[in-house]
Amino acid sequence: MKVHLYGGFGEKGRTCIGVECCSVRLLLDAGLKTDNCPGSVYPALSPAALNDLTAIVISHAHEDHAGALGWCLANGFKGEVWMTRETAQDFETSCSDYLEAAHKKSLQRMATRHFEAGQPLRFGDLTVTSGRSGHTVGGVWLAATQADKSLLYCADVVPQSPLLIMDPLPNCTVALIDTSYGDDPVPPAHRVRQVVEWIQAHPGACLLPTPLIGRSLELMLAIPSPISVHVQMVATLEQQLRQVSWFQPNTVQELRQRLANANRWQEGDPWPQQPLICHDGMGLTGPSRQLIPGAQADGVPILFTGHLPAGSPGEHAVKAGAAAFIRLPTHPTRDENIGLVRACGAARIIGHSCTELALEALRPHLPVSLELAKTGDRIDIQ
Ligand SMILES: [Zn+2]
Q: Is the whole-model pTM more than 0.85?
């Protein structure tokens, strides 16, 4: 089995892994990059390689994992795209604002096939299995197996999510783990407390930009006080809360109640005298694009809680001291990754979705040596 690292290694974004076995060629994810760093926005694979692909399997509907599907179709890919039904439901609302118009058009001819988390998919000699990731409703980790060789691709996972379920990882030969947070050791519960304390220290209006899927419901669960939700988010959040099998017990009812009680806010309304949740989480798309500069102009405090790509409005606001940042974990902390590495028994570990510097920091803590692979590298699993 040959594994091609087409994107997301030594960098955050454009996550994309090629798996080659006999005549089967798969992509696991096809993401795009939203920062303004030098280098390509899209995965590093040629039109000829796209044309040769059997299928693409998508882990979840975030743009850094699925936002390059239209680009793949516009550049020679002709196969099927596999994702869970829940990811397919969220894909358009979650990704479309990040896409170029031509790529959006290409998506009209996407042949989408659905799978259930845990249902094996067979492509020739290769079997792809999956499990719920705890990161988004519909989000999964993926494992590609041929005879006694297997590649585990964690994609984005949250091992101890109070909201969503993560299924145990299978044993594997090589694991590509989610190292988005490098060696960050702070437990999620501590971060939740910090977010709540920040909100309590800023009574009245405050703005909480967050992705449409993943982290919005986590924030709603974390904040004990009444909140406002941008009206454009409501239908998507309600849809996610209908997918009960992805949630931890007793959370759906609580969240449905909080969403039902939340004030629906829209442009033209005065700032609500309570936290306002709006999308996206970086200021690149959605109502956040206007609300972030608006809040800055009106002196409304802003708190970012997730990844801020270089050059994004969110990063600018934090760097300028005009907004606060407290990470609300939706990726593994250092200790969670130590646990994941032990659980999957992999002899080789490679981290995705962070810089080489962050990998170097995490490396001494892991029980198995972390390989410093970069986008463009190839790995042979013997
Ligand atoms: Zn994600």
A: yes
